[in-house]
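Submission checklist for the structure archive. All mandatory fields must be present; incomplete records are returned to the submitter.

[x] Identifier: Angiotensin-converting enzyme 2
[x] Organism: Picea sitchensis
[x] Residue count: 79
[x] Sequence attached
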Amino acid sequence: MPGARSQKPDATAPPSYIFLVQHLIEKCLVFNMDQQECVDALSKHANIQPLITITVWNELKKENEEFFSSYLQKQNRRK
């Protein structure tokens, strides 16, 4: 996602970790996961704390409002 670099949600988390979480969230989006599905998947498979995933997701959402608006509309039609 262009311009999707997020601020660190945890002052102790290095930027590379945040970029990893961002990359994994983008993979979740490719698989049409909603936020909770992504949080659950990253917690289970990548051992990422839910709060970190939620924080990075919310920052991405703020920085990419148009994309997420469209994505969430598609999610709602899917259900």
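[x] Structure attached
Curator remark: The longest helix spans residues 15-30. DSSP finds four helices and no strands in the chain.
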